[in-house]
């Protein structure tokens, strides 16, 4: 067992022992009172020393428990280890269990069935209470069971009367059921503890990933400490890492994008392209980890809306065509004629799946082509009865996949072999995310491949066809054919210039956004905090506000709420959130605060441009 794994196991044991001490704290004095009252009831004809002996054992055990709790409270596990406390707790459980067992033996009244029954109920009840407080640590529970059950069981056996033997049998059945329930309770409590340590492996992987690993490790330590509160700590940790990585990446990618638009010497461009590609790879890794965490915890939700599927597919292929051209690989897309443009589905997740599959195909194809085909599954059409299913097929002429690897290709963190990983890179999460997304959509995904001959990845998903008439279809087709991303100066000046308030406390991000907006033909006013943003917005004159969320004086959500309280046009200005968080609950918080839209960092130039274009007034 590795040192890290051994440390985790030790922390799990410490958590068990700490919970054991806590659960047994609340009712520790009640057994003393209970045994005293039982002595008054059952010891009418018994020896005078019996109650003293029974209650004395209970007091001795209770004082021992209190001593263990005080040592743990004062010194943690530095004076006594978790193993030592567990052993001593188990021995004290023998003492307290024996006090109840002795009571059952000494006060056993063979001639009085009501007294036997009442005494048995008391013993079984205390065993039930012990199960709830000691099930987290089975040795202590079993020690109590034995000490509490054996003496009265022996008394029943020695009496040898039918009723006594019947009661003995019923007690055995009861303790057997208690053992089963104790096991279930133990598994539930241990499962809750294990949830606190689920993110350890993820932390270790991030720590080895890149130069930002040290900061990730520090955040992981904080997250692991907070994980004692439950599974929410894992989500908080992922969100923190996402923000801390995306914020500097926004500056890196933004600045490299701007530099790539300038005149550079060939060697300078080569170096700059390497920096840009590394930043994009790191951004992709963060996105994969975030998506995987949301899928694993069931937090990711589909957003099925009426969408232009053809346009989404074509834009994805267009985005990847530059990569194909760089490698000299052909990239084609064929959409069956009977596939409608308008469908109701989550096009963003479909694009994510296609981007992964086509991106992988391009990565592993050195020559030849990559082809995307979309049509109805099993030859059905959208007009047929039942739920229509679209089939997407990505075929390449790349290196192919060995037959032995086909069974693990969709498992998380799986790679065909390490030599391919070193050559082509990757985390082993992309295809696992694709599979989970397809399953979430109610579809299926698969692959057919031969090593050295290429691969064919396919997936089928159900879609709902949006109702539309022929005129709407024709107009949609014309719109899709005419739409393209505007990147030159003439296109950027088709509408009026916007006066934009940029709110960000990060100096590099300020410079990046100012340069991008200037290239788009807009003017920008920069402020470094939420309070300054409210003051600037109150003066009016802005067409739009780009608002960062994480700021020290007043965060973006608070600033937005105050701006929405301003009178007149100043309180109605469109506000776009710029966030390094990529979770659905952050988007919902932005909407509730009054923001009109959300852009995720690192900011994509084309996405920002398209969004700004929607707020521009056409030039007269």
Report on this model:
With 620 residues, this protein is α/β, with parallel strands linked by helices. It is 60% helix and 12% strand. A 5-stranded mixed beta sheet has the order 2-4-5-7-6, with helices on one face. The chain has a 5-stranded parallel beta sheet with strand order 10-9-11-12-13, sandwiched between helices. A 3-stranded antiparallel beta sheet has the order 1-3-8.
List the total number of helices: 22
User: SS-based structural class?
Assistant: alpha/beta
How confident is the prediction overall: mean pLDDT?
A: 78
In whole angstroms, how far apart are the ends? 73 Å
Oligomer: single chain
Shape: elongated
Q: What fraction strand?
A: 5-15%
Strand order of the largest sheet: 2-4-5-7-6
Specify the biggest β-sheet.
Answer: 5 strands, mixed
Q: Count every beta strand, where a strand is a DSSP E run of 2 or more residues.
A: 13
Detail the poorly predicted runs. 469-494
Query: What is the helix content?
Result: 55-70%
Using the CA coordinates, give the radius of gyration: 34 Å
């Amino acid at each position: 067992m590795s040192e890290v794994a051994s440390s985790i196991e030790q922390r799990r044991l410490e958590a068990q022992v700490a919970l054991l001490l806590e659960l047994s704290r609340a009712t520790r004095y009640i057994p003393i009172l209970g045994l005293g009252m039982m002595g008054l009831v059952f010891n009418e004809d018994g020896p005078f020393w019996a109650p003293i002996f029974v209650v004395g054992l209970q007091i001795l055990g209770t004082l021992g428990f209190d001593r263990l709790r005080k040592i743990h409270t004062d010194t943690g596990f530095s004076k006594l280890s978790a193993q030592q406390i567990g052993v001593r707790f188990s021995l004290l459980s023998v003492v307290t269990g024996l006090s109840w067992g002795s009571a059952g033996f000494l006060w056993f009244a063979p001639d009085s069935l009501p007294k036997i029954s009442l005494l048995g109920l008391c013993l079984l009840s205390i065993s039930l209470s012990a199960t709830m407080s000691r099930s987290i640590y089975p040795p202590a529970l079993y020690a109590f069971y034995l000490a509490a059950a054996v003496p009265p069981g022996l008394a029943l056996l020695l009496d040898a009367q039918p009723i006594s033997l019947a009661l003995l049998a019923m007690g055995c059945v009861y303790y057997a059921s208690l053992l089963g329930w104790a096991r279930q309770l133990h598994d539930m409590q241990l499962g809750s503890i294990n949830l606190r340590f689920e993110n350890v492996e993820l932390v270790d992987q991030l720590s080895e990933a890149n130069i930002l690993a040290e900061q990730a490790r520090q955040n992981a330590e904080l997250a692991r400490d907070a994980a004692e509160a439950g599974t929410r700590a894992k989500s908080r940790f992922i969100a923190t890492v996402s923000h801390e990585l995306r914020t500097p990446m926004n500056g890196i990618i933004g600045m490299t994008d701007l530099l790539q638009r300038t005149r550079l010497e060939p060697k300078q461009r080569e170096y700059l392209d390497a920096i840009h590609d590394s930043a994009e790879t790191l951004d992709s890794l963060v996105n994969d980890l975030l998506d995987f965490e949301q899928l694993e915890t069931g937090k990711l939700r589909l957003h099925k809306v009426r969408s232009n599927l053809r346009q989404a597919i074509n834009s994805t292929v267009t985005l990847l065509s530059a990569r194909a051209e760089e490698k000299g690989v052909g990239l084609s897309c064929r959409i069956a004629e009977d596939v409608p443009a308008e469908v109701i589905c989550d096009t963003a997740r479909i694009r994510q799946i296609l981007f992964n599959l086509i991106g992988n195909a391009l990565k592993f194809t050195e020559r030849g082509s990559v082809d995307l085909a979309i049509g109805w599954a099993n030859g059905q059409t959208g007009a047929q009865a039942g739920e229509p299913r679209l089939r997407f097929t990505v075929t390449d002429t790349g290196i192919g996949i060995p037959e032995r690897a086909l069974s693990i290709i969709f498992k998380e963190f799986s790679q065909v072999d390490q030599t391919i990983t070193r050559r082509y890179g990757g985390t082993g999460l992309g295809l696992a995310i694709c599979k989970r997304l397809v399953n979430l959509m109610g579809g299926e995904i698969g692959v057919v491949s031969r090593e050295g001959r290429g691969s064919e990845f396919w997936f089928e998903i159900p879609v709902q066809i949006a109702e539309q008439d022929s005129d709407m279809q024709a107009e949609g087709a014309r719109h899709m054919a005419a739409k393209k991303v505007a990147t030159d100066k003439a296109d950027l000046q088709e509408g009026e210039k916007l006066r934009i308030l940029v709110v960000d406390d990060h100096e590099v991000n300020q410079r990046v956004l100012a340069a991008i907006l200037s290239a788009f033909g807009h003017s920008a006013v920069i402020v470094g905090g939420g309070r300054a943003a409210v003051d600037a917005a109150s003066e009016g004159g802005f067409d739009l506000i780009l608002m960062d969320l994480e700021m020290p004086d007043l965060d973006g959500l608070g600033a937005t709420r105050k701006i929405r309280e301003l009178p007149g046009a100043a309180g109605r200005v469109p506000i776009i959130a710029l966030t390094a968080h990529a979770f659905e609950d952050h988007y919902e918080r932005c909407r509730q605060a009054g923001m009109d839209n959300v852009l995720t960092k690192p900011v994509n130039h084309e996405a920002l441009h398209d969004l700004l274009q929607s707020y521009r007034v056409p030039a007269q």
